[in-house]
Specification:
The protein has helices at residues 2-18, 23-30, 50-67, 125-136, 155-169, 180-192, 196-204, 221-236, 256-263, 275-288, 295-304, 309-323, 332-339, 348-351, 354-365, 369-373, 379-395, 400-405, 412-428, 430-444, and strands at 34-38, 43-47, 78-82, 145-149, 175-179, 208-212, 240-245, 266-270. The chain folds into 4 domains: 2-82, 2-Layer Sandwich (GMP Synthetase, Chain A, domain 3); 99-270, Rossmann fold; 275-345, Helicase, Ruva Protein, domain 3 (Orthogonal Bundle); 352-444, DnaA protein, C-terminal DNA-binding domain (Chromosomal Replication Initiator Protein Dnaa, Chain: A, Orthogonal Bundle), CATH 1.10.1750. By secondary structure, it is an alpha/beta fold. α15 (354-365) runs antiparallel to α17 (379-395). The longest helix has 18 residues, at 50-67. Bound molecules: adenosine-5'-diphosphate (ADP) and magnesium ion. Adenosine-5'-diphosphate binds at residues 113, 117-119, 124, 151-157, 281, 309-310, 313.
């Protein structure tokens, strides 16, 4: 009798969830879970892999607690068994391979990190389209693709998106995704097991290699050479490499040879998303969790958490946990209470206006403010204007359209073009970099 009730608890949970998530989400994540046993004090579920388990607990722990028996801690009492665990030396994902060349580590891609779930905005449009290009034609467009940007801005998300896309659309290609740490550990393990040749063969036979967080290669001299050799072998065969890093190649403490290889293809920067993009991310992430947040609340959160998407996601998770699926009665006051310690209290971007920037640029570049807002194509004026646009995009947290309008009615593509140009120039032009820094300091103090 009891068993029957518990069983129907899982069935009820399924029913409840199915009505609240997208059908794709349900098919991918919930449907593959099998109920093995529902004992008095514990429910046993079979999951195809640990990702599904993490997903279930990460998103629905609180809801599960409403339907299933609980432990003393208040957590749902679930025991997970993983169905047919993949043996360490094979991969079901990378297509047919010789046993000897079997991957040394399984391909681990976060199932939620796909292009579909990546929200585009001006800060990441360029890098996203480069990623899509590379995924569509591996080895035939930019190679390597080097993605750099700050913490929690979606670099790993894009990297895995490329992996998923290739697995789905180029089934014969061998893909491997590694963190730099894992690659180093692999080398160490294989040196110890005297299987380093096998490892080299494996890596050098890949078609697509995804390398996350290359900055961890800094100060690891012995390993840098192995990396570099692997890269060269792959690049020479037109095999695709995608690398992420928290810094641009030139700013990494790595050998010139390594830096040169990484700069060979396309270097793309992942910026901090602007307000509207953050709002779109909040809405998307909350919908993924079966909760719909109003525009007003989404804007409210986006205004208070602005330089890290991971934190934004944390905020959404927290809101979901607190309000379950009853988002309708959320108001700013409640949200502020739930998220107070996550909100960034200093909002330095807010105080800076386009006028501040124009004034400071005009002083440093010795031009008039009216010239900056005007149309003159005179070289010095045009450069100063582009610097002002660059700084406005960097320092002001407002929609690009609004910022551009403050420059005497320019369009947002003009602004983006200026931003891109100055971003590139300051990498190579020391004098300009100093001037930009000077303007920035004047504005900030
Ligand atoms: P990074 O590798 O740059 O530190 P991640 O790729 O791990 O950042 O991203 C952190 C979190 O933010 C992830 O959960 C990711 O899905 C999410 N995220 C970042 N950028 C976006 C975006 N543009 N659209 C949707 N989710 C994003
Ligand atoms: Mg990352």
């Amino acid at each position: 009798m009891l068993e029957c009730e518990v069983k129907s608890g899982w069935a009820q949970f399924i029913e409840f969830i199915e009505a609240r998530c997208s059908s794709a989400e349900f098919e991918n994540w919930i449907a593959p879970i099998r109920l093995i046993e529902s004992a008095h004090e514990e429910t046993t579920l079979e999951v195809p892999n640990v990702f599904v388990q993490e997903y279930l607990l990460g998103n629905f722990k609180e809801v599960l607690a409403d339907f299933l028996p609980l432990r003393a801690s208040g957590d749902p009492a679930i025991r997970f068994v993983v169905a047919h665990p993949i043996p360490r030396n094979t991969s079901s994902l990378t297509g047919p391979i010789e046993p000897d060349d079997a991957p040394l580590t399984d391909l681990k891609l976060n199932p939620l990190y796909t292009f579909d779930h990546f929200i585009e905005g001006p800060s990441n449009q360029f890098v996203k389209s480069a990623a899509v290009g590379v995924a569509a034609r591996p080895g035939k467009s930019y190679n390597p693709l080097f993605i750099h940007g700050g913490v929690g801005l979606g670099k790993t998300h894009l990297l895995h998106s490329i992996g998923h896309y290739v697995l789905e659309n180029h089934k014969k290609l061998r893909v491997q995704s590694i963190t730099t740490e894992a690659f180093i550990n692999d080398i160490v393990d294989n040196l110890r097991l005297k299987s380093i040749d096998k490892m080299k063969r494996f890596y050098r036979n890949l078609d697509v290699l995804l390398v996350d967080d290359i900055q961890f290669l800094q100060n690891r001299l012995n390993f840098e050479e192995e990396f570099c050799n692997t890269f060269e072998t792959l690049l020479n065969q037109n095999k695709q490499i995608i690398i992420t890093s928290d810094k641009a190649p030139g700013q990494l403490k790595l050998s010139e040879r390594m830096i040169a290889r990484m700069e060979w293809g396309l270097v793309a920067h992942m910026g901090v998303p602007d307000l509207e993009t953050r709002v779109a991310i909040i809405k998307h992430k909350s919908e993924l969790r079966g909760m719909s947040i109003s525009n007003q609340i989404a804007f409210f959160i986006a205004e208070h958490i602005y330089n890290n998407v991971r934190q934004i996601e944390g905020a959404v998770n927290r809101l979901c946990a607190h309000s379950r699926f009853a988002a309708s009665n959320l108001n700013e006051e409640i949200v502020e209470r739930i998220l107070s310690e996550m909100f960034q209290t200093t909002t330095p971007h807010k105080r800076i206006s386009v006028e501040n920037i124009l004034k400071s640029v005009a002083a440093v570049f010795e031009v008039r403010i009216s010239e900056l807002k005007g149309e003159s194509r005179h070289k010095e004026i045009a450069l100063a204007r582009q610097v002002a646009m660059y700084l406005a995009k960097e320092m002001i947290d407002d929609s690009l359209m609004k910022i551009a309008a403050s420059f005497g009615g320019k369009t947002h593509s003009t602004l983006l073009h200026a931003w891109k140009k100055v971003s590139d120039q300051i990498q190579v032009n020391e004098m300009l970099r100093r001037q930009v820094q000077m303007v920035r300091r004047n504005i900030e103090t």
